[in-house]
């Protein structure tokens, strides 16, 4: 936890010059490592998952609590169910594609949060 959250926000925003697409698009640098996690944890989109998985994602270490391959399977099942009732779920479909890429990188047995590696690779191109 940063000692001065307001200072962290100011540094983060100043660093990114309020360029929100760049802020979220350049996931690999994550604005002074934990800065973005600190900002998110204090905002409206705060969720316990950020504090649980965020630090591991920043460090690119993924101790397995729930394997990525099982998360992708669950997404696949949800997509199948949605298709059976003619209900599009485009965000889940996009997430599923990222999980499939992560599996192709050999991350199947890593924690589901390792999906960020697929996002990092996608954003570098």
UniProtKB/TrEMBL annotation:
Residues 37-118 form the 3-hydroxyisobutyrate dehydrogenase-like NAD-binding domain. Belongs to the HIBADH-related family. NP60 subfamily. It holds the Pfam family NAD_binding_11. This is 3-hydroxyisobutyrate dehydrogenase-like NAD-binding domain-containing protein. InterPro entries: 6-PGluconate_DH-like_C_sf, 6PGD_dom2, HIBADH-like_NADP-bd, HIBADH-related_NP60_sf. The lineage of its organism: Eukaryota, Viridiplantae, Streptophyta, Embryophyta, Tracheophyta. GO terms for cellular component: chloroplast. GO terms for molecular function: NAD binding. It comes from the Eukaryota. Transmembrane segments: none annotated. It comes from Ensete ventricosum.
């Amino acid at each position: 936890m940063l000692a001065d959250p307001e200072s962290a926000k100011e540094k983060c925003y100043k660093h990114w010059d309020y360029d929100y697409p760049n802020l979220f698009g350049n996931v690999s640098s994550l604005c002074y490592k934990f800065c973005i996690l600190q900002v998110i944890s204090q905002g409206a989109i705060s969720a316990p998952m950020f504090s649980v998985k965020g630090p591991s994602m920043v460090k690119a270490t993924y101790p397995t609590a729930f394997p990525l391959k099982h998360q992708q399977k669950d997404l696949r099942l949800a997509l199948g169910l949605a298709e059976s009732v003619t209900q599009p779920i485009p965000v889940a479909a996009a997430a599923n594609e990222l999980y499939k890429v992560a599996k192709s990188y050999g991350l199947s047995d890593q924690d589901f949060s390792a999906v960020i590696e697929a996002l990092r690779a996608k954003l570098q191109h």
